[in-house]
Fold this protein.
Amino acid sequence: MTAQTASAQTASTVDTTLAAATAAAPVMAAAAVADRVRWLRAAADAVDAGVEDLVAAALEETHLPEGRLRGEVARTSGQLRMFADALGTGALLEAVIDTADPEASPVPRPDLRRTLRPVGPVLVFAASNFPFAFSVAGGDTASALAAGSPVVVKAHPGHPRTSVLTHRRVADALEGAGAPSGSLGLLVGTEAGVEALRDHRVKAAGFTGSVPGGLALHEVAASRPDPIPFYGELGSINPVFVTTSAVKQRGSEIAQGFVGSFTLGVGQFCTKPGLLFLPTGHGLEEALRRAGEVGSATMLHPGIREGYSAGLARLRQAEDVEVLVDGAETADGVSPSLLRTRLSTFLEQPDALLEECFGPASVIVEYDDEEELVAAAGRLEGSLTATLHAQPEDHARLGDLVAVLTDRAGRLVWNGWPTGVAVTWAMHHGGPFPSTVGSLHTSVGVTAVRRFQRPVCYQDTPEELLPEELRDRNTLGIERRVDGRVTGDDVRSSR
Amino acid sequence: MTAQTASAQTASTVDTTLAAATAAAPVMAAAAVADRVRWLRAAADAVDAGVEDLVAAALEETHLPEGRLRGEVARTSGQLRMFADALGTGALLEAVIDTADPEASPVPRPDLRRTLRPVGPVLVFAASNFPFAFSVAGGDTASALAAGSPVVVKAHPGHPRTSVLTHRRVADALEGAGAPSGSLGLLVGTEAGVEALRDHRVKAAGFTGSVPGGLALHEVAASRPDPIPFYGELGSINPVFVTTSAVKQRGSEIAQGFVGSFTLGVGQFCTKPGLLFLPTGHGLEEALRRAGEVGSATMLHPGIREGYSAGLARLRQAEDVEVLVDGAETADGVSPSLLRTRLSTFLEQPDALLEECFGPASVIVEYDDEEELVAAAGRLEGSLTATLHAQPEDHARLGDLVAVLTDRAGRLVWNGWPTGVAVTWAMHHGGPFPSTVGSLHTSVGVTAVRRFQRPVCYQDTPEELLPEELRDRNTLGIERRVDGRVTGDDVRSSR
């Protein structure tokens, strides 16, 4: 097949897939909340039912351990069910009703009712490091479906067979549960992804991956004749700060936790801690060197491996950086590396130490005085997380550091580790650039749905033409903000 | 002064202004909710106290009538007070608390608490057509201040003295109420605005103006090394659909309302109805021709006037478009123009008829069959509003038209007119491109604040280091989502 033929085939596939999504969009938007809940549950059941096939395919393609993959399948179906539950409560619709005020000055105020409607077809660029939870049926897809938007996934090349298997199961389940065909489409190849992103039928996009990849796609989305929202989760350094008291009280436990966190999943998590600030003279070298015993493992795919090698070499070449654990890179895989430098070095050349190195490497930064930590935190770029290990006696003097860290990170972790992201209402997975781009929204947790919803206000609209969640009678039994107050009551309309 | 000197002066002013905003940001972010409420109220009072000076300056600069300007000042202070009230209820913080679950499977779940924090310094490009309500102390500024973000306004050149007067009063009032100096800055000139938009210290921007201007600034915001959210309200056609029954029942009232709406404020509203779909043989020509009696008025400034002339000429030159009211354009001002075409013409060459013509012009589109309206609506681009005039007996067959219109507009107006935007909780002012860009958010109403807030999640964080709205004791007495349910109760923490 010539390149031209391949390109024509891609164009035709993209067109067919987007046409199906576009046809599905109004059907999904008009569907009752209860129907959308049922679709999500059917998708969750299909993921669970397919666990053996799915894990077998992913085992072969990703080199991730079986236990992890089974856990990830459970998380994926769990996410779909969480969105179904939340959608059922009506909270995702943010229904607001302001009843008419004929006496309002200077002019009478009409009856105004606002809800959130699906944005239309959503394009999801799947991640490499979560073949289920951030892939075809992952969080972006689940939250867009919960919004009522059809989804077209651009499969990640790291796990093509897993993607096709997931897509077939979930698309069938959605259709079997009554969702329109075209609710979930799949595209393969970079060219197809970019072409879809340029297409006017796509109304929003989600992406999880590298900074350069994310920025390039963001630029495509922003420079369309009709720019669309692009939610990219890119790179994050996830700094960890440890106070002197914390080291004294539980230093070896912290060292052990840190080694576990930065080497988990071969360091292939966007929340991997990439910097650990420890007081000089912490005496934890031996405990930290145990990272050298973690052993070698294969990375997700050769591209990731190459990026990691280059990143690690860059860190090792930085001035005044010492190697604490000299990880091996063999044909079979990589083993963890741990570097060490001083805070003065970090402050002088932060750029060299601030770029995410995706894989099992991290840098210890040793400080002399806790007072310096605020300045160090001030040099950080945006991160998904920032972590503090401290003792109660430290709290009173940590206010400034907390303020700087919450200005630079989306999640502040206390006496814990950033890896392991609970999927709940309160979770936020997103932070200032470069950890995310184009987004004041999360890609994990219930509120991720808001990325794919747009408000619509109905002014003086007849009851029978309103969406169910905005009618006088609160038939869905949901919480609504009526005349400024949250209530589950019916509305006494003056219309 | 040479161009180079001017440019250096601009750079220095931008730098000073942004430095002040940057210094103010952490102080504002750390301030108690009650303090931020007090600042907003002080700003509102200052606007009201200055009404005589402000209206006098705007009268001279904008040619808008005094009554309108006084009303706009009241709306502006009213907006500031509305945001103060809403902030006081705590609802704008969307506080969410998921208490720890040590039994959660497969791993214990930490305590997670999410709130919305200010995004940091916000740049506001003021509009020409609302010298108060969308200008220095207007909706964008008020909502950003309510979020806890400092604001730098790029003044609109159409009303420079009004801008300076407003800025001086409101900045003084903010500082007088205890807000940090730098809470509200003012920049003058396109170069200063673009330079500020490129500056890394600016974290989000709002804009109200033309499609080309908005797209150019959006591109600047999106192509920064660290892209930021850009909320632009650009151009909107605001179609109005009238059923045959509605014409029969109250045709002349509708014609009168339409003339009032499209000529209001010399047609200089982003919600001006630019298309009116009427059934062929409506017999309303005489009522519509009364637009010719509205008389001539001066437009906001020469640039708007030139744009209007060009837009009107384009409409008049479109094929098969007939002039119903031949508006005059004299040295003193313009008087309304009304054009007429057939639905078949609209469907054949919609592009010529879909571009917003900012000023007192509108186009009647005559249809033969109501069934055609769904197809016509399908040809529309994104709009701030769409309006339907219908009788109860029409409702049963209008579902499809409503679905298409709510897919293309942010607000559906029933038996009313799109001009006149109530500032309430449920209002939504925003719609698909080109009516807004980069935004699933509103620029009018309480929820406008969300544009300038980013979520932060606190994991297992000690009570005394949490923001007040996330502490166990609900000292603010606000509504919070605790373990999935909205409540005003304290949290019984297991921490």
Q: What stands out?
A: Chain A touches chain B through 87 residues (CB under 8 Å). The first strand of chain A starts at residue 96 and ends at 98.
